[in-house]
Design goal:
Two copies of one chain form a homodimer. Chain A has helices spanning about 15-25, 30-40, 45-50, 55-70, 90-115, and strands spanning about 45, 70-75, 80-85. Chain A is mainly alpha-helical. The structure holds a DNA duplex (30 and 30 nucleotides).
DNA sequence: CCGTTGTACAAGTATTCAGTTGTGTTAACC
DNA sequence: GGTTAACACAACTGAATACTTGTACAACGG
């Protein structure tokens, strides 16, 4: 279950659109932070608001986008709404991105070291 | 070499910014298509322009963004510029996104089927 | 009830960014 | 050299979207 089976080539436009839309959801620092905070467990809007020191409306809005994308789930309890990670896969994505970033940084450092030496 | 070693929690802001920036690069259908086309091997701007039926300036611009992000490499030959995939990892990212998408679609279908039955 | 608390929605503003247009630059060919 | 072709860069325009402000709604406590 490693590979998506039989990915059509070239990738059809509607699928490209879906993929891009998915990446767009993760293309905002605030949403990355929200997911990162939710990695420690479910949290209410107020808790997230305080943890990220952002406005309630802003937090609620971004959570709505994540919910709409199916990346988090919402559970209402009294007046509070508790959000939780619904798709653990997002962390694999972030880890891979971090891996690529580290690789690039290492290569840059290697180039710099070589540059200093000559 | 599966996990990024010792990811700090919470993820520091500058790293969050870098991650989001990375996702933002992939958040555009045109760039996804360019990478998809380059999966078949290096290609010049003109070839990509024709394959995607887009303007030369637009293709060149998006390739510049991909180049700046370190996802593709550029090789000049005469008046032509040949671009190639520099970071194969992007395809793993896309595959994972496709996996998540498929999972969601399957769950939706399951819900629909159940809804019809009752 | 009535006020407080927690959350979501809507309108307005500001910013960001994609796509086009126009132009500059470099290399091959006559 | 002059011309053509391939690519890249900069300014402009329009659309998408993030963030703020204001408000509405629901649940709980007095």
């Amino acid at each position: 279950m490693a590979m998506t089976p039989s990915m059509p080539r070239p990738v059809p436009d509607p699928l490209v659109e879906l993929i891009a839309q998915r990446f767009r959801v993760l293309a905002e620092p605030m949403r990355i932070k929200l997911l990162d905070r939710l990695r420690d467990g479910p949290a209410s809007v107020g808790e997230l608001q305080e943890a990220l020191s952002a406005s309630q409306q802003n937090v609620s809005k971004h959570l709505g986008i994540l919910l709409n994308a199916g990346m988090v789930s919402r559970t209402r309890a009294g007046t509070s709404a508790y959000y939780a990670i619904a798709d653990e896969g997002v962390f694999e994505l972030c880890d891979q991105v971090c891996g690529s970033l580290r690789k690039q940084i290492d290569e840059l450092e290697a180039l710099l070291a070589e540059g200093i030496r000559r």
